[in-house]
Amino acid sequence: PGPGGFVASTRVSCPLCRKLCPLPRGGAAALPVNTTLAEGVKLYRSGTTGAAKAGETEQGQGPGPLSPLALGGTCQKHPGGLVQLYCRMCRQAGCGLCVSEE
Predict the structure, then answer these.
(1) Is residue 4 part of a domain?
(2) Would you say residue 49 lies in a domain?
(3) Is 27 inside any structural domain?
(4) DSSP conformation letters of 27-87
(5) Which domain holds residue 39?
(6) Which of 40, 46, 75, 93 has its CA 20 to 30 Å from the CA of residue 64?
(7) Domain count along the chain
(8) Does residue 2 fall inside a structural domain?
(9) 24-40 pLDDT per residue, tens
(10) What are the C-alpha distances in Å from 35 to residues 10, 45, 57, 78, 101?
């Protein structure tokens, strides 16, 4: 264990889908930016209310949590479920059941 009892790990839990993913070579600093959280912080700081439209992301960041490429499609794991999120780290789309199961 390191300082404070922290044990270094080479895998981290994805904040969107909770699957264990490998930690990049550069450590936590090399993880992709959570653009959904960053946008929420930006809205909070600007005093703006409301949320970004589904699929909006900062330029060059790739598909967002509700990517138009995946939104409205059916879940591969749960055929009756509609796709509600897209995890950029895992590059997988999923429905509400996927999130609650993982």
Answers:
(1) no
(2) yes
(3) yes
(4) GGGGSPP-HHHHHHHHHHHHT--S-PPTT---TTS-S-TT-TTTTTSBPSSSTTSBP-EEE
(5) 9-101
(6) 46
(7) 1
(8) no
(9) 888 888 887 777 777 77
(10) 23, 15, 7, 27, 24
